Amino acid sequence: xxxxxxxxxxxxxxxxxxxxxxxxxxxxxxxxxxxxxxxxxxxxxxxxxxxxxxxxxxxxxxxxxxxxxxxxxxxxxxxxxxxxxxxxxxxxxxxxxxxxxxxxxxxxxxxxxxxxxxxxxxxxxxxxxxxxxxxxxxxxxxxxxxxxxxxxxxxxxxxxxxxxxxxxxxxxxxxxxxxxxxxxxxxxxxxxxxxxxxxxxxxxxxxxxxxxxxxxxxxxxxxxxxxxxxxxxxxxxxxxxxxxxxxxxxxxxxxxxxxxxxxxxxxxxxxxxxxxxxxxxxxxxxxxxxxxxxxxxxxxxxxxxxxxxxxxxxxxxxxxxxxxxxxxxxxxxxxxxxxxxxxxxxxxxxxxxxxxxxxxxxxxxxxxxxxxxxxxxxxxxxxxxxxxxxxxxxxxxxxxxxxxxxxxxxxxxxxxxxxxxxxxxxxxxxxxxxxxxxxxxxxxxxxxxxxxxxxxxxxxxxxxxxxxxxxxxxxxxxxxxxxxxxxxxxxxxxxxxxxxxxxxxxxxxxxxxxxxxxxxxxxxxxxxxxxxxxxxxxxxxxxxxxxxxxxxxxxxxxxxxxxxxxxxxxxxxxxxxxxxxxxxxxxxxxxxxxxxxxxxxxxxxxxxxxxxxxxxxxxxxxxxxxxxxxxxxxxxxxxxxxxxxxxxxxxxx
Length: 653
Known about the structure:
Helix content is 49%, strand content 16%. With 653 residues, it is of the alpha+beta class. The protein has four domains: 2-141 and 244-319 and 589-643, no CATH class; 149-243, Calcium-transporting ATPase, cytoplasmic transduction domain A; 332-354 and 469-569, Rossmann fold, CATH 3.40.50.1000; 358-466, Calcium-transporting ATPase, cytoplasmic domain N, CATH 3.40.1110. α4 (93-106) runs antiparallel to α10 (288-302) and α10 packs parallel to α22.
């Protein structure tokens, strides 16, 4: 899962996080806190005896007491530091803590040596608790995989794992159960909680013939469905896979900090060494132990824990917050880039419009419906929304369909196939022009799209269909304008006059229609000529996949969208609501804000305490409290985003 991301970072370099999990995440409460409590009590008692100058608490007894306080918490860290040095990884957090505390013992600062290691380890434990809480929060969003499926085999209902269910088998889902696999409802259906997949809290009613997705929760009554996707190909499985791989694509800020930590740690180590040696040549009253103490304080505060742990955690929290709201980022780099969008290109059908076409007119209208029957037979093999409209019409009018012998989808144009021994073409005017078939001119509404049908090379008829805007389409454009997007363009394969009409209604800057996939690619290439502009494209169809891959950020509509579009995109909107794009920008901005807050907090604090330590004005106590405190504040700040409300109040007028 994506939680593995947090296990691959450490305070000084990514290779040490796993070791920390071994040293600071024991399996029982006694192991976790017993050692710390023992060492803390030993430290307090020792300091009290020092304060009251207990007569017997001197010499080797005093040294042994503090060594006994030190070793239980220090031994695992010292051992790990040594093992990493032997592997060639010298400058790690374990090295810094080991040198600082052993040096403190060397100059006789026993209580401070114990305190540094004790509070460092205490900070690590609390840090571990915060990180594990973040992991649980994210995991709870993603761990929605159903564990069982009730499948009908030989007239009996058998309980099996969802991976064992075959295509076209019938399963039943009881009230309160999760839907185990994607399928089509066979009976009256039910009401469903879709929040785990889409972030939408309002239950959704789905009836006979409609698609249900794995991960939805049945709220109302028992229903049956026929499985049309294997578990590994289900929408839920793909969501889990997308989120699980999101952590492999890291934001520029995150990559920079990881590289910075590898350079920063050896630099501060050498500076600490210089702080001990150089004053010997320039300070008249040089005292070695004083300058060594300053160097040790310098080392303690230099550990970059707050940066290297909290920054990836911040991005991880942003990805989790987005998932909770039905937005899937495939990497923190896309989350990072989202707020920088200046130009947004959008497909029309299924993106800004509902993609639910209704037949407005059929010409010619006559008793002979053979041409409609042949067209519907071909469209039955397609997933395009136009085909659904034609099939709904044939169902309503009891028009027969036939088996298809051959079928070819011509991208951006339509379908060609052999049905009932005849060659059938169904598509737009470009398909017919390319096949030298004449189309009679007819007057239609500007928002009506026309589908032409030809049989054996002869024009047979046309079907006029119309779509409608999504409820939040207009307000989405207004929201996007307010988010700073300067240019919004519509790119559509629909007729130019239809495209322009919709663009005017929405208040878009430009609109281009009659576009083939390669034409959309060219348009986005033109938009990307300004290298300083981040160009995003939003689409949902198979023909949108090339341009989704080309854009700086490809955004796919995950509900109606094709598998290819969803697979190619960088961001997936599970609810198909264009307003979610504005929400994604909000999450991006807040995530980056939190990340930079952490960077600023860590750098400012470290700069101040490092300076005070070098000047001899800060003790090791101040250094360890500053280091642990800043790390904790940064981590708590990073996980804060998971509890924020990013809901948008959208009202279309």
